[in-house]
Amino acid sequence: MFFIAPMKSLFEIKNRILLIALVLAAPGGQLRSYAEEIAPAGKHLVEVLEGMHVDKLWLAGKRVNWRTGEATGTYDQKLASHTHCSAFAAAAAEKLGIYLLHPPEHSAVLLANAQQEWLRGSGTNQGWRFVDSPLAAQRLANQGALVVVTCKNPDPKLPGHIAIIRPSTKSDADIVAEGPQIMQAGRHNYLSTNAKEGFKNHAGAFEKNELLYFAHAVPAQAQAQLEGQ
């Protein structure tokens, strides 16, 4: 028997229904975990991403080299909150032999918004595919694919956000409640946090299921080169 506690929002209702469905579908009525489902390619992906040191580079308020994240100067005080989520995502993709829209094809300004539009359009011609759920997104990352989660700001004059999903052993229940595990640059740079936390500055985006996920397989040649480093 399931006890459904009082819920305050449609988002909570949808999540509770999804959790019940997952339990009913799982063997023995237990939510499955991804703890034993991180493939060797997924473990290697973690090593590559962590080796980029996003916690120390692509820092907010600094002018940076988009590829390396190294500071090249500072912004005026009024632009101190300028962040580099889109630059880090593009740099990580390039390191893995994958193209994601980046300068000079698009200005670093409002790049995250443009990246989502590109991923939904031209990106599909370059190997990117839409992923229809956070659970599927986490699974693909665990298998070693590059997976990004994006939010386009409804105000075209304001920035959106993009982050990379990192392989994780978190359970289905945790993924439903707080989203996949991510790595990001932003107002706060994280080596590891959840999507709900990472996108909290975009009010309601997580709760309203407005985040979009996209995945790209890591090319075999790039994978081999990285493994040889």
Q: How many strands in all?
A: 8
Radius of gyration: 18 Å
Structural class: alpha+beta
- Overall geometric form: globular
Rounded mean pLDDT is: 85
If you had to describe this structure to a student in words, what would you say it looks like?
- Helices cover 33% and strands 15% of the residues.
- A hairpin with a 6-residue loop joins strand 1 (62-64) and strand 2.
- The termini are far apart.
- It is built from eight helices and eight strands; from the N terminus they run ααββααβαββαββαβα.
- The protein is α+β, with helices and mostly antiparallel strands.
- The chain has helices spanning 10-25, 40-50, 85-95, 111-120, 134-142, 172-178, 195-198, 220-227, and strands at residues 62-64, 71-74, 129-131, 146-151, 161-165, 181-184, 190-194, 212-216.
- The protein has a single domain (34-227), classed as endopeptidase fold (from Nostoc punctiforme), CATH 3.90.1720.
- The strands form two sheets. The chain has a six-stranded antiparallel β-sheet with strand order 3-8-4-5-6-7, with helices on both faces. A two-stranded antiparallel sheet has the order 1-2.
- Residues 1-9 and 11-31 have low confidence and may be disordered.
